């Protein structure tokens, strides 16, 4: 099994949120991110601090994690970088 680096984990978390219509509850995100509770909490705090995600409390749905426009921009730029690296076999 190949270990993911920090940027790949951030990409994975943001992609999971994006693929769930831009919002998801905490527990499914934790499960789908395939991280321990402690590592997930660390990444969640960093993503909140960097404003790549936000948390909101909805009456009917409970606490939701949303991807922000800045988080969407991260995904776009990440994809551009990966495509560049792959194009030049780096």
Helix/strand order, N-terminal first: HEHHEEH
In CATH's first tier, which class applies? Mainly Alpha
What structural class should be given to the helix and strand makeup?
alpha+beta
CATH superfamily: Winged helix-like DNA-binding domain superfamily/Winged helix DNA-binding domain
How many helix segments?
Answer: 4
Task: Report strand order across the widest sheet.
Answer: 1-3-2
Radius of gyration over C-alpha positions, nearest whole angstrom = 14 Å
Residue-averaged pLDDT: 95
CATH topology: Arc Repressor Mutant, subunit A
How far is the first residue's CA from the last residue's CA?
A: 22 Å
Largest sheet: 3 strands, antiparallel
Report low-confidence residues grouped into runs of 5 or more.
none
Shape annotation: globular
Helix content bin: 55-70%
Number of strands: 3
| Percentage of residues in strands | 15-25%
Which architecture does the CATH hierarchy give at level 2?
Orthogonal Bundle
Task: Give a structural overview.
- The chain has one domain: Arc Repressor Mutant, subunit A (Orthogonal Bundle), CATH 1.10.10.10.
- It is built from four helices and three strands.
- The relative contact order is 0.17.
- The chain is an alpha+beta fold.
- It has a three-stranded antiparallel beta sheet.
């Amino acid at each position: 099994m190949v270990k993911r680096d920090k940027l790949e984990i951030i990409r994975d978390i943001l992609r999971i949120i994006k693929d769930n219509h831009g919002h998801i509850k905490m527990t499914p995100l934790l499960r789908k991110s395939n991280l321990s509770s402690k590592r997930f909490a660390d990444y969640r705090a960093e993503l909140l601090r960097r404003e790549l995600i936000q948390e909101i409390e909805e009456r009917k749905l409970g606490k939701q994690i949303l991807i922000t426009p800045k988080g969407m921009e991260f995904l776009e730029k990440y994809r551009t970088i990966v495509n560049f690296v792959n194009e030049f076999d780096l």
